[in-house]
Each structure stands twice: as structure tokens, then as C-alpha cells.
Specification:
heterodimer; A: alpha+beta; two-stranded antiparallel sheet; 14 helices; 18% strand; elongated; B: alpha/beta; 7-stranded mixed beta sheet; 4-stranded antiparallel beta sheet; 8 helices; binds adenosine-5'-triphosphate; binds magnesium ion
């Protein structure tokens, strides 16, 4: 029998039992659609994270003070301090800019609105450009204001809205803890980057934070401790060499060893790879879910093919009587099983692609349809059809012509 | 000039095994020449259908030899038997055995699907030939009808057209008129006689002595052995082996 004939016969058999065929294909349809949609969601999430991270600029190195405060028998170090920033700027080559950040949290009041536990971020003049923040209204503070510890503040967009609603906060005063500050600017909306909400914070000169919100009696001897130093490196510079230089410099300044470092240095690349490893774990979970649903779909196909072989025993007998060989019969039923899974795979692909679009449009999650996921889902559907179709097809091929013709 | 199409030697067929085994054929030998019309008779359960299935290569004998068209087919495997059925034999069943929900034309072309030897037959040629066959059996105006839209006699004629489509060397019919009323049965018999006159070799099982009387030769089975052979109404032998040599003597 020619393969084309087998396809025609299989198509007719499937079409004669439309409802049954559709129900049989349902397992495959759901499996394939689920694979495509879930991979689209995970790819979309990953793309969103990538975009956010890239928006920070890829040439940033983060130096963060860590909890480790010296090893046993060692004097406690002050962790990362404000002067480390200047030392890095001066002592390491190919450093374009250094931005320092220290944070705390306080109650913020304006008029009769009170907001509890607002993160306050003290930083330096380079901050908006390094973290890609734009001023929506007013202005950012300058060097002089840092030197003079001027009581000025820039609001994140959601804080500004909660405190002042629609009206402009510029020129108004807010009370942070016990300190009165003048609002000189508002940032445009930035949204979540990683786990940080840039819009629900307020920003002020780092010197003000040292003085009013994180005063320390050790500051006089060890310097004001800071949470983070952003180091922007020159385009095309050797990042690894710069990191090594920063590390060497800080080890010396903090009087620690490589094993007892009180800081950690990370890059954008490190953050991206951490995210990627979490998404890849998510993906392997998806692969299991998909695998199981496809196997269940395959069992459905096998079940219905066994029913079909029994129902059509007489037809098989007639075909055998006029000269169909066991191979002909096997081909016919295997084609039918394959076609069920392939048509199911096609419908599943349509549902999956359509579903991904609709899901992306209706929810705030982004979906990115991966062509490879379609190929993967489709290929496994076909493989499942061939695998689970073989046994029933072989049963059919093995029938005895006379017995088959006698079957009622 | 006649060529031997079938020669069977001491064929037996045993169904089941052990204590409950049934011997349907107990050593049957015969020869059939090209162009013959042979009727097989005998009481129910005497082994007629069993013999037809073996002659039609639908089952294998338990022992004995079967030479079809010069080829020993006693030990062929399933696929080889299928090829022999397809190329050399046409089988007509009492129950018509047409594919349901399939047009007369597609039923007749069915054997062409499995014609591995002669792949040159295109779909168009096959359809033309099937059309011609349906004309031959008097159904030229019914080619697109499905079995449920045809009478029993018409369905059996579709089955005959199907049996003829691959130009078989022999047509085997097991009670072809068994499910039909006497008029339709007569029409089928007339058709078979016409085919015979045109040169087709036919072996047919029948219960009707009147029908058997029209054939050249009648072989009567009883309890799985040949009980009697008549040639043109003349008794030529009883259950002796080899029977065919006696018939040759008589001819
Ligand atoms: N598949 C089978 N298994 C067991 N016994 C069988 C089988 N087929 C036939 N027989 C037995 O073989 C014997 C011959 O059966 P067969 O069908 O050849 O008879 P028949 O001459 O065609 O009868 P009828 O005129 O009723 O059609 C019977 O005793 C029957 O019971
Ligand atoms: Mg019978």
C-alpha cells in the first residue's frame, strides 16, 4: 500500500468519528498547548528580567558590604565605608564613575498624610545616570548640597502621589523622622527592578542620611558605613581585572584576608546567570509536566486504537482477504495513530500560540513564543503517537483473516 | 489444451488441539484444470468452507501439499499468502463482505491498493478498470452507491467485480447465492456462467443440486473426505485416492 493511501484511509477513519477523535486528541492538545504557553511565559519573564537588568547598563560593578565582620581573633571592621568609594575612584584605573548608596527606613509625613516604613536612600550625584532614573519634575541635588548637608529630598513617583496626590510637591516640605526636608524633585515611574521598587522610596544627599538617620559612634574612626558602591567601568575595559583591583584595594583598606572579606563584588552578568539558573529549574519542571501530559495523551491514543482495531476487525478481514499483508495493516493503523497525535499536535500548537497571545494581552505577564518549543511539543506528540500506536497496529496486523471475517 | 491450476495432495485441516481437536478435512486430493467450473457439495459441517479457505490461501492446511499455478503454496508465510490472494485469486463470500460506507467503485478498487507486484496501475487506470468490471456485472449505473444502498444481489455483484479486478487465475465462491432469494440467486449464477464461458476458472460451494447440475463437475464432501465425484452428471468415483487420476481417466 502506498503511504498516501494509508494517509487517506486514516484521515477518513478519523473523520468518520469526529467527536471520538477529538476527545482522543484532547490529551495531546492540552499537553502541547501547555508546553507552548508555559515556555512562552517563562521566556517572557526572563526577557523582562533581562530588559530590566540591561536598562541598568551592563558596565556596572556592584560592591556590597556583607554581614561578615572579620574572622575569629580579628578586629571587627566597619564593612564598606564612604571613603572606600573615593579610594576606588582614585586607586583603580578604567573607573568612569562611582556612586555610593546608604539606606534606612523612616516614617514620612506631609500635611496630614503619614507613611510608615518608607525606605530612604542617601546617595550621590551620579545616581540617576548609573541607575537610569529620570527626573519628572523639579531637579536632582548637586555636589554643593551634599557638602552642605542640605535638607532636600527627591520623591519616588508613588510616594509623591501618596503624599501629594495630583498636586505638585515641588517646594513643599515633608517630615522624615524628625527632620524637615524640602522637596526639590520627583522621579519618573521606574517600576520593579529585581525585587526593588524604585518608586516607593525617597532620595536625599548621602551626607544627610549619615548625619540624621544612620549616625554611628564609630564613624569618627572608621568612616560612615554604606550599603553599596556602584562602580561604572569604562566601555570595553577588562571587567575582571577591575574587579580584581577593587578587591585587592578593599582587602588592604579593611585589613582583612581573602577568606574574611567584609564585602562582595558582583556584576550584571552574575545577576543574569542567577536568574537564568532559576528559570532553567522552572523549565525542567515544565518539561516533566509536559512529558506526563503527553504520555497520558499517548495512553488515550493507544486505548482508542485498540477499540478501533476491535471495531474494525471485519474490515481488517476484508482487506486481508483481498491481499493486504500484515505490513499493510500495520501501516494503516500506525498512520491513524500518528495522524491522531499530529492533528492533536497541530490543534495544540494553535491553542498554545493563541493562548500565549491572549494570556500576554490579558495579564501583566509577558509571553514570548519560542519556535523551538513548538518544534519540541510537536515532535514529542508525534513520537508519542508512533510509540503508543505501534502495539494496537501490531495487534491488527496479526489477526487471522478467517477469524477476522467471522467477527460479528 | 488444459493447464492444471490447482493440485492438492492429501490435505488435512485440524482445528484446535489435544482432546477437543476437530478434523475438518481428513485427506483430500484433487486437481482443477484451467477453464473448469467445479461445484463443491456436501452436508453442513462436511468441510466445504474449510477447503475453500485453503484453496483461497486464507488459511494453511495442517498437512498435505497445495500447488497453485505451479507454485507450492503450502508453506508460505502470511505476507506471501496475502500476495498470492491478491494476484492470483478472487474470493466471493456468502456474506458479500464489502467495506461499509464505501462506494461500489472503491470496493472494487480495494485489491488494487495491495497490488505490490504491479505498481504501474495508476489510480485512473484502476478506476477505469473497476468501472468496466462494474459494467460487466451490470452495475454501471451504481458505481457511487454504497453497500447499504444496494440490494443483496447487487452487493454480491460488486463482490464479483472486486474478485475479478486483478485478473485472477481462479475465482473461489463459498455459497455465493446462500443469502439471496431464488431470482437474485439465478442472476448471480447466470453471471458466473457467463464468466465461465469467457474463460474464468470457478470453484463454487453450493447446497442447491439444481445449480450443481449446471456445472461440469461436482465434488461431494462428507466428514472431511471426498465422497463422490460426478462429471457432467455422470458418476466417476468414490472416496479413493488419488481421485484426480480417475477423473482424468474418465475424461
Ligand atoms: N475455526 C474453527 N474452529 C474449530 N472448528 C471449526 C472451525 N471452523 C470450522 N470448524 C469445524 O470444521 C468442520 C467443517 O466446517 P466447515 O465450515 O468447513 O463446514 P461447511 O461444510 O462449510 O458447512 P456449512 O455447509 O454449514 O457451511 C465443522 O465441524 C466445524 O465445526
Ligand atoms: Mg460453509
Amino acid at each position: 500500500m502506498k503511504p498516501l493511501e494509508a494517509i487517506r484511509i486514516a484521515w477518513e477513519a478519523i473523520f468518520k468519528n469526529k467527536i471520538r477523535s477529538l476527545l482522543t486528541m484532547l490529551g495531546i492538545i492540552i499537553g502541547v498547548a501547555a508546553v507552548i504557553i508555559m515556555i512562552a511565559i517563562s521566556a517572557g519573564t526572563e526577557a523582562t528580567i533581562q530588559d530590566q537588568i540591561t536598562s541598568l547598563g551592563s558596565n556596572l560593578v556592584f560592591v556590597q558590604g556583607s554581614m561578615t565582620r572579620g574572622g575569629p581573633g580579628q578586629a571587627p571592621s566597619g564593612g564598606l565605608v564612604y571613603d572606600d568609594a573615593a579610594a576606588i575612584q582614585d586607586g583603580v584605573s578604567d573607573v568612569k564613575a562611582v556612586v555610593v548608596e546608604q539606606n534606612s527606613s523612616e516614617t514620612v509625613k506631609a500635611g496630614d498624610v503619614t507613611l510608615e516604613d518608607i525606605e530612604i536612600l542617601g546617595t550621590t550625584t551620579g545616581f540617576p545616570s548609573v541607575r537610569d532614573m529620570e527626573i519628572a519634575e523639579g531637579r536632582y541635588f548637586n555636589e554643593t548640597e551634599i557638602e552642605r548637608k542640605s535638607k532636600v529630598v527627591i520623591l519616588g513617583s508613588s510616594v509623591a502621589e501618596e503624599l501629594f496626590g495630583e498636586s505638585s510637591p515641588i517646594g513643599e516640605y515633608i517630615k522624615v523622622g524628625n527632620t524637615q526636608l524640602a522637596v526639590i524633585g520627583v522621579f519618573t515611574e521606574k517600576g520593579l527592578v529585581g525585587n526593588t521598587d524604585f518608586d516607593s522610596r525617597i532620595y536625599m544627599p548621602i551626607s544627610v542620611v549619615f548625619q540624621k538617620f544612620t549616625p554611628s559612634m564609630f564613624a569618627r574612626f572608621m568612616g560612615d558605613s554604606v550599603r553599596m558602591i556602584y562602580v561604572e567601568v569604562e566601555e570595553g575595559a577588562d571587567q575582571d581585572a577591575i574587579i580584581a583591583n577593587i578587591e585587592r584595594l578593599l582587602i588592604k583598606r579593611h585589613d582583612v584576608t581573602a577568606d574574611t572579606e567584609d564585602f562582595t563584588i558582583t556584576t550584571q552578568q552574575d545577576i543574569i546567570s542567577t536568574r537564568e539558573s532559576t528559570t532553567s529549574a522552572f523549565r525542567s519542571l515544565l518539561a516533566w509536566v509536559a512529558g506526563v501530559s503527553l504520555i497520558v495523551g499517548g495512553i488515550g491514543i493507544m486505548n482508542i486504537m485498540l477499540v478501533s482495531v476491535t471495531e474494525r476487525t471485519r474490515e481488517i478481514g476484508i482487506r486481508q482477504a483481498v491481499g493486504a499483508t500484515p505490513a499493510d495493516i500495520r501501516l494503516q493503523f500506525l498512520t491513524e495513530a500518528l495522524m491522531l497525535s499530529i492533528v492533536g499536535g497541530l490543534i495544540g500548537t494553535l491553542v498554545g500560540v493563541g493562548g500565549s497571545y491572549i494570556f500576554g494581552a490579558l495579564s501583566d505577564m509577558r509571553t514570548v513564543i519560542q519556535p523551538a518549543s513548538i518544534l519540541l511539543a510537536f515532535g514529542s506528540a508525534a513520537a508519542v503517537g508512533a510509540f503508543f500506536g505501534y502495539y494496537p497496529a501490531n495487534q491488527a496486523a496479526q489477526l487471522d483473516p478467517i477469524e477476522a471475517l467471522r467477527y460479528e | 489444451m488444459s493447464a492444471t491450476i490447482i493440485e492438492i495432495v492429501d490435505i488435512t485441516k485440524v482445528y484446535g488441539m489435544g482432546d477437543i481437536s476437530v478434523a475438518a478435512l481428513n485427506g483430500v486430493s484433487m486437481k482443477i484444470e484451467a477453464g473448469e467450473f467445479v461445484a463443491i457439495m456436501g452436508p453442513s459441517g462436511s468441510g466445504k468452507s474449510t477447503l475453500m479457505h485453503i484453496l483461497g490461501c486464507l488459511s494453511q492446511p495442517s498437512s498435505g501439499q497445495y500447488i497453485l499455478d505451479g507454485e507450492d503454496v503450502s508453506n508460505l508465510d502470511k505476507a506471501e499468502l496475502a500476495a498470492v490472494r491478491n494476484r492470483k485469486l478472487g474470493f466471493i463470500f456468502q456474506a458479500y463482505n464489502l467495506l461499509a460506507r464505501t462506494s461500489a467503485l472503491r470496493n472494487v478498487t480495494l485489491p488494487l491498493l495491495y497490488n505490490h507486484a504491479d505498481a504501474k496501475v495508476s489510480v485512473e487506470e484502476g478506476d477505469q478498470k473497476a468501472h468496466a468490471m462494474l459494467e460487466l456485472v451490470g452495475l454501471g449505473d451504481r458505481i457511487h452507491h454504497q453497500p447499504h444502498e444496494l440490494s443483496g444481489g447487487q452487493q454480491q455483484r460488486v463482490a464479483i467485480a472486486r474478485a475479478l479486478i486483478n485478473d485472477p487465475i481462479m475465482v473461489i465462491a463459498d455459497e455465493p447465492t446462500g443469502n439471496l432469494d431464488s431470482r437474485s440467486g439465478e442472476e448471480i449464477m447466470n453471471l458466473l456462467h457467463t464468466l465461465h464461458r469467457q474463460g474464468t476458472t470457478i470453484v463454487m460451494v453450493t447446497h442447491d443440486p439444481k445449480i450443481a447440475a449446471h456445472t461440469q463437475r461436482t465434488i461431494t464432501l462428507k466428514d472431511g473426505v471426498i465422497d463422490e465425484i460426478t462429471h457432467n452428471g455422470k458418476h466417476v468415483g468414490r472416496n479413493t485416492i488419488p481421485l484426480h487420476s480417475q477423473w482424468e481417466g474418465a475424461a
